[in-house]
Write a structure and sequence with these properties.
The structure holds 2 protein chains of 2 kinds. Chain A is α/β, with parallel strands linked by helices. Chain A contains 10 helices and 10 strands. Chain A folds into 2 domains: about 170 residues, Rossmann fold, CATH 3.40.50.300; about 70 residues. In chain A, the strands form 2 sheets. In chain A, strands 6-7-8-3-9-10 form a 6-stranded mixed beta sheet, with helices on both faces. A 4-stranded antiparallel beta sheet of chain A has the order 2-1-4-5, with helices on one face. In chain A, strand 9 and strand 10 form a beta hairpin. In chain A, helix 7 runs parallel beside helix 8 and helix 8 runs parallel beside helix 9. In chain B, helix 8 packs antiparallel against helix 9. By secondary structure, chain B is an all-alpha fold. Helices cover about 85% and strands about 0% of the residues of chain B. Chain B has one domain. The chains are: A alpha/beta, B mainly alpha.
Chain lengths: ~270, ~260
C-alpha cells in the first residue's frame, strides 16, 4: 500500500490524480454492476460522470467513498488505498473528502447548524460555541442566514436542505467533494443556483469534484470533463465542451435524450 | 417440484446465517459500547427516551398484572385453604419473573420497534452513509448509546414494575379480597429475598441488550421504502419479544440450578 501523503506533499507530485479507480468491479449476487471501471481525477478538476438509471453511478461513488468494498480493483485517494484504510487513517482520509448526498441526508434530529458542524464537534473536537460560529459562517457562503441555523431540516425547503448539505460537505475544507445528483428534485431555477454554488465552492476551495448526474444542463455547467458510465464501464470521456459532438453513439443518444438508439430505456 | 429436503436445508442454512449475522452485529455493538469513544449526550438522550418515557406503559402493565395475579392466586389458593399466601406468591412471581418479562415485552414493542423504525429511516435516507463520511461510526454514534441506555435503564424500570406490580396485588387484596393492609405488606416484605430481586435485575440487563440490539440490527438491515422500514419494525418487535421469553426461560432454569 502506498504511504498516505498530506495534500501539500501530494500536490507537489506532477500529474498525480487525487482519486484513481483501477479496474474496479462490483457485483450483487449474480448481477455485476461495475465491470472494470478505470477513472482518475486530477487535483482541482471537476469531473461529471453521466449515465442512465442502473448504470452503476451510485455504486461507483459508494465504492470510491469506502462505503462499499469492490470485489476487484483498486481505489486510491491521494495515493492511499481507500479499501485498506482503517481506524484513524480512514478518519483522516474522510476528513479530506466531502459528500453531498442526493437526498441531502441531513440528520433529522439535529438542527441545521448542528448538521453543518457535525464533523467539527464529533471528529475535530471543537467546542459547540466555536463550531456554531464556523457553521454560521459556512451557511453564509451558501446564502443561508443565521436565522436558519436553529431550525430542523424538516422545517426548511428542499432547495435550502440541499444548500445545508452543501455547507456540511465543505465545512472542513476538503480536497475532494462528491456530488450525487445534486439537482434532482429541484426546480430549474433552484437547480441552476445550486450549480452556481457548487462551482463557487469548488473553485473557492481549489478542491477536485466528482459529480454523478443525468441532468445535462448541470453537467455542462459544472464539468471540466465528462465521462459516461454504461453497463458498469466508462465508455467515453472528454472535455465538457465536446459532449454534444462526442462521436459516440451511446453518448449522443444520452445527451440528446432520445428513446431510440443503442441504449435501451430502463422500463 | 421442489424437494422438501431442499426446503428444510435452505431454511436451516438461512436460520444459521441470520443467527451468525445477528451475533456478529451484537458483538460489534457491545465492543463499541465498552470502548471509547462514548457520545455521552446521545447516551443520556436515549436513557430519557428508553427509560423515562417507558415508565407509564410499564407502570400500567405492572399494576394490572399484579392485580390479576393476586385474584388468580386467591382463587387457586382458596381451593386448598391457602389464601393467606397471596402476598408471598405475588411478590415472588413479580420479582423473579413477571416484572422483568412484562417490562421486556412492553419495551420490545415500544422501544425495539421504535429504534428499528428510526434507524431504518436513517438507513434508507442515506443518513447512516452520511455519518460514515463524516468520520462517525454508526456503531459508536447510534447503536452503542441505545444499547448502553437500554442496559442501564431496564433494571430501573424493572424495580418500578416490581413495586407497582406488588401494589396492584395489594390494591385488589385489600379492597377486593378483604386482606388487612399492614399484614399484606409485612408478609410481602418478609417473604421477598435479595436474591429474588437480583434475579429480576439480571434478567433486565440481558433483556435491555436484546431489545436495543434487535432494534438496531433490523433497522440497519432495513430495505428501502415505507414497507421496508415497517417490516424492520415488525421483525424487531417479534424477534425481541421471542428472545426475551426464550432467554427468560434459560435464565430461570440456570438460576434454579445454581440456587439463586
Amino acid at each position: 500500500m502506498s504511504p498516505a501523503l498530506s495534500a501539500k506533499e501530494y500536490y507537489g507530485l506532477p500529474n498525480s490524480p487525487i482519486l484513481k479507480l483501477s479496474s474496479v468491479e462490483k457485483s450483487f449476487g449474480a448481477k455485476q454492476v461495475l465491470r472494470g471501471v478505470d477513472l482518475d481525477v486530477a487535483p482541482g478538476q471537476s469531473l461529471v460522470v453521466i449515465g442512465g438509471s442502473g448504470s452503476g453511478k451510485s455504486v461507483m461513488l459508494k465504492n470510491a467513498l469506502g462505503l462499499m468494498t469492490p470485489d476487484k480493483g483498486q481505489i486510491l485517494f491521494a495515493g492511499q488505498d481507500v479499501t485498506k484504510a482503517t481506524g484513524k487513517a480512514r478518519e483522516k482520509m474522510r476528513a479530506r473528502i466531502g459528500m453531498l448526498f442526493q437526498s441531502g441526508a441531513l440528520f433529522d434530529s439535529l438542527t441545521v447548524w448542528e448538521n453543518v458542524a457535525f464533523r467539527l464537534i464529533n471528529s475535530e473536537g471543537l467546542s459547540r460555541r466555536d463550531a456554531k460560529e464556523r457553521a454560521v459562517e459556512t451557511l453564509k457562503k451558501v446564502r443561508l442566514g443565521a436565522d436558519v441555523a436553529g431550525l430542523y431540516p424538516a422545517e426548511i425547503s428542499g432547495g435550502m436542505q440541499k444548500r445545508v448539505a452543501l455547507a456540511r460537505a465543505i465545512t472542513s475544507e476538503p480536497d475532494l467533494i462528491f456530488f450525487d445528483e445534486p439537482t434532482t428534485g429541484l426546480d430549474p431555477i433552484t437547480a441552476d443556483a445550486i450549480n452556481d454554488l457548487i462551482l463557487e465552492m469548488v473553485r473557492g476551495l481549489g478542491a477536485a469534484a466528482v459529480t454523478i448526474t443525468h441532468d445535462m444542463a448541470s453537467a455542462r455547467k459544472i464539468a471540466d470533463e465528462i465521462a459516461m458510465l454504461f453497463e458498469g464501464k466508462i465508455i467515453w470521456r472528454g472535455p465538457a465542451a465536446d459532449v454534444m459532438q462526442s462521436g459516440n453513439a451511446y453518448v449522443d443518444q444520452f445527451v440528446s435524450g432520445r428513446a431510440d438508439g443503442p441504449i435501451q430505456p430502463a422500463l | 417440484m421442489t424437494n422438501p429436503l431442499q426446503i428444510i436445508g435452505r431454511v436451516t442454512l438461512g436460520l444459521f446465517a441470520e443467527i451468525g449475522r445477528l451475533s456478529v452485529f451484537a458483538g460489534r455493538v457491545a465492543t463499541a459500547a465498552v470502548t471509547p469513544r462514548w457520545y455521552l449526550g446521545e447516551i443520556l438522550r436515549q436513557m430519557v427516551r428508553i427509560g423515562f418515557y417507558s415508565l407509564p406503559v410499564v407502570g400500567l402493565s405492572a399494576v394490572f398484572i399484579g392485580a390479576a395475579l393476586a385474584l388468580n392466586i386467591y382463587e387457586g389458593g382458596s381451593r386448598y385453604g391457602a389464601e393467606q399466601f397471596v402476598p408471598n406468591i405475588v411478590v415472588l412471581g413479580i420479582s423473579r419473573e413477571l416484572g422483568a418479562v412484562i417490562t421486556g415485552l412492553m419495551l420490545a414493542g415500544r422501544v425495539s420497534a421504535g429504534i428499528a423504525a428510526e434507524i431504518g429511516a436513517m438507513r434508507v435516507t442515506e443518513q447512516i452513509d452520511a455519518l460514515e463520511t463524516l468520520s462517525a461510526s454508526p456503531y459508536r454514534y447510534l447503536y452503542a448509546p441505545r444499547f448502553l441506555a437500554a442496559v442501564a435503564t431496564l433494571p430501573l424500570l424493572v424495580v418500578a414494575a416490581n413495586i407497582i406490580g406488588v401494589m396492584g396485588g395489594w390494591l385488589v387484596s385489600v379492597y377486593g379480597l378483604g386482606f388487612d393492609s399492614t399484614v399484606y405488606l409485612r408478609n410481602t416484605v418478609d417473604f421477598v429475598t435479595r436474591d429474588d430481586i437480583l434475579v429480576g435485575l439480571i434478567k433486565a440487563v440481558l433483556f435491555g441488550g436484546i431489545i436495543a440490539v434487535m432494534g438496531c440490527y433490523q433497522g440497519d438491515r432495513s430495505q428501502a421504502g415505507a414497507t421496508g422500514v415497517g417490516r424492520a419494525a415488525t421483525l424487531s418487535m417479534v424477534g425481541a419479544a421471542v428472545l426475551v421469553l426464550a432467554f427468560n426461560y434459560v435464565l430461570s432454569t440456570l438460576f434454579v440450578e445454581i440456587g439463586l
